[in-house]
Amino acid sequence: MNKYSGELDVVEICTDDLAEVAENSGVVSVPTIQFYFAGTALETHSIVGCVAKSVLSNAVEKVMEDVAQQQANFK
To answer: 26 Cβ partners below 8 Å, 6+ apart?
Structure first.
């Protein structure tokens, strides 16, 4: 979270307290990391289960690249 501060928002949902939100988002296992852009889930970029810090960092970098490309395509 600290590495990407100011570049993206991180939101944590407690599946015990907000079971309906988790269900509506398709979360079936904890931990699950989902990436969103413009309010839409980037389904090809979700991570389920514990992963190494480097794997998570690489996934975030890939999402940021893909989002930047999408923004460039809209201009």
So the answer is: 41
What angle (nearest 5°) sits at the alpha carbon of residue 55, between those of residues 52 and 57?
110
The DSSP code for 26 is T
At 75 the pLDDT is: 66
Residue whose entry in the numeric block shows the structure tokens 């839409």:
40
Tally the residues of the chain: 75
Give the percent of the chain with pLDDT over 70. Answer: 97
| 31/49 Cα distance (integer angstroms) | 5
- pLDDT tens, 30-54? 999 999 988 888 877 889 999 999 9
**Rounded-to-integer distance, Cα 29 and Cα 8, Å:** 23
ω into residue 31 within 30 of 0, thus cis?
Answer: yes
